[in-house]
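Example record

One chain of 229 residues, shown exactly as stored in the release files.
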Amino acid sequence: MSVTIDELVVADPPEAWAAAGFAVDPGTPDEPDGPVCRVGTVRIRLAGPGAGGGAGRGIVGWALRGLPAGVPPEGLDGIPTTPSEAPPAIPAEHPNGVTHLDHVVLMTPDLARTTAALRGIGLEPRRERSGDLGGQHVRQVFYRLGEVVLEVVGTPHTTSDEPAHLWGLTHVVPDLDPVVALLGDAAGHPKDAVQPGRRITTLRTRDLGMSVRTALITPHVPGAGRSPG
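Predicted C-alpha cells for this chain:
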C-alpha cells in the first residue's frame, strides 16, 4: 500500500479559513472531530491556535495511510505523525474555487536525514532540482503521496539536530481571477509559476488570521512541461 495523506492538523481557527474562501465543516457524523476543511481527498483539521504544543502555529502534525510498522513515537523526522486507515475525504466545494491540494512543503535543516526518514517509510524521490529561497541556495526533492506532491526543501550538505517541519500548502484553483476578486487585498498579484503554463498567487495569510503559508495555483497544463512529482 502506498503512503498517502489522510489529514493535516493545523493550529488555525476555522474562521480564518472561511475568510480565505474555504468551506469548513463544523463537525458531522462522518467527521465528528470537526472543524475540518476537505480539500480534495485530504482533510485539514483546524485545531485552533496553540494546538500541538511548541509554537502552536502552522501545520502541527499529519496522519498518513500506508505507514509501515515502527514509526517512532516522536513522529517522522520530528513531525508528529499518526497512522491512519480512514478512507479518503469526499471533496468539498469551496467558495474560492479550490479543487484539491497540489503540494505540501516540508522544510528540513538536514536534507540527508529527512530523505532517509522518508525512504524508511517506503517513499522514493520522483525528481530533484536546485532552487532559491530568500537568496539562499536550496535543494528541492519531490515525492508523490497519492494526489498530493510532497516537496522537501533543505540546504545541501548541512546537518542539524533540529526537527523537520511542515511549512506550507499550495492549492489548485481552475482560474485565479475569480478568487483574487473574491479575496481582494488578501490575495497577492498573480504571476507565472515555475511550471510552464501555470499561474500562482500567495495569500496574505496574516491579514486573514491564518498561520500556514498558503498559495493558490492553476492546474497543470498537459504538454506544457514537467510537473513536480
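Notes: The mean pLDDT is 91.
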